[in-house]
Design brief:
By secondary structure, the protein is α/β, with parallel strands linked by helices. The strands form two sheets. A ten-stranded mixed β-sheet has the order 9-6-5-4-3-2-1-10-11-12. A two-stranded antiparallel sheet has the order 7-8. Helix 4 links the parallel strand 2 and strand 3.
Length: 358
């Protein structure tokens, strides 16, 4: 079974596609929510290190010019109120992510339990190091899925990449075990970013993922770009050509989520996209810890990309101002989160001659 299928998933929501085409601003399918901008790790490839307020990367990476403050920790009552408003508007799910590490929020368990109580589906991105047995049971029984960012298959390389002590490797393994044996049916994914230095170790990564009991393993390219000029790769992408045969073989494994075409697109990326407008922003959004709602998950804290502020407005009022599309790709990231969705949705929405004759 494949869990990561952006093209297929968006076509499962033809009601939202049709509503927007008919002029109705349907609620997003999913909200990504940054509960915390704190992180206990210092991953070398962290794309959102500039958001961190505490942790190994805090203060080491300057917030880029043109970015605004995203806050530190989310206000619990604001989160609960906005979750209920979003659910009533038609939002189906919430993904707890970052920003920072979501499980560092002091009321994380309380928020998870509340979202479950109002019927929202939930997913979590985490490094797994703060999941004790009690939290593991809660998450196992309330989340649809949890993806643990691992990236390395042994304690020494893990510590070097994450910028912390090797003991965190065992903390991560314990967290995965607590999830796996928490008594629920949460699907556990193990995530690895591949680049020039580590793609040859992908088989070892998969072996480790199976040893710790992950339900699936996902491999994605390590996207290198300049935050001040994010529309083009900044690093060497020649390694992708050598890696593609191995990635293709991995993608055939039943418990592997790997899209070789995504790696090839990264290698061949140009500023010319195959669509004139980003419509993917209609179907999800992101909220930073201070309650600000942004038009795109890859534009969190980017000035000019905010839709509104939940601390002073309702979710419905903010969404009513949604622009519906985005056409200025100059500051959009290489191989952005919504790229594959946009390729599909553009084909649905683009004008056609004689469309009445099928």
């Amino acid at each position: 079974m494949k869990y990561i299928d952006p093209v297929g998933k968006i076509l499962a929501h033809v009601d939202r596609l049709a509503a927007w085409k008919q002029g109705t601003k349907a609620a997003p399918i999913n909200i990504e929510w940054d509960l915390s901008n704190r992180c206990s790790l210092g991953c070398a490839g962290c794309h959102f290190a500039y958001t961190h307020t505490r942790g190994p990367l805090s203060g080491k990476i300057d917030k880029p010019a043109g970015f605004i403050d995203g806050g530190d920790l989310a206000d619990v009552e604001l989160v609960k109120r906005a979750l209920l408003e979003a659910k009533d508007a038609g939002v189906l799910s919430v993904t707890w992510t970052g920003g920072g590490e979501p499980t560092l929020h002091p009321a994380f368990d309380e928020i998870i339990a509340y979202a479950d109580s109002i019927g929202l589906r939930q997913g979590l991105y985490t490094h797994g190091g703060h999941i004790d047995a009690m939290r593991g049971a809660l998450l196992s029984q309330t989340l649809d899925w949890c993806v643990v960012s691992i990236d390395c298959q042994d304690a020494q390389s893990y510590a070097a990449y994450k910028g912390i002590s090797p003991v965190w490797f065992d903390k991560m393994r314990t967290g995965v075990a607590n999830l796996k044996y928490g008594g629920g049916d949460c699907i556990i994914g193990a995530s690895f970013l591949l680049g020039a230095d580590n793609w040859t170790q992908a088989r070892d990564m998969l072996k480790f993922s199976r040893i710790i009991g992950a339900d699936y393993t996902t491999f994605r390219p390590m996207i290198e770009y300049d935050i001040d000029n994010p529309s083009m790769p900044s690093g060497d992408v020649s390694w992708v050509a050598d890696a593609l045969p191995a990635l293709q073989a991995l993608s055939t494994e039943a418990d592997v989520e790997c899209i070789p075409e995504r790696f090839a697109e990264y290698r061949d990326w140009t500023q010319a996209r195959g669509y004139a407008a980003c419509y993917g922003i209609r179907f999800n959004t992101v909220v930073t810890p201070n309650g600000k709602v942004f038009v795109c998950v890859n534009r969190r804290e980017f000035a000019g990309s905010e839709l509104g502020d939940l601390s002073v407005e309702s979710f419905g009022d903010i969404w009513a101002r949604h622009p519906g599309e985005w056409r200025d790709f100059d500051k959009c990231r290489v191989l952005c989160r919504l790229h594959m969705i946009n390729e599909t949705v553009w084909n649905v929405y683009r004008p056609r001659q004689h469309a009445e004759f099928v």
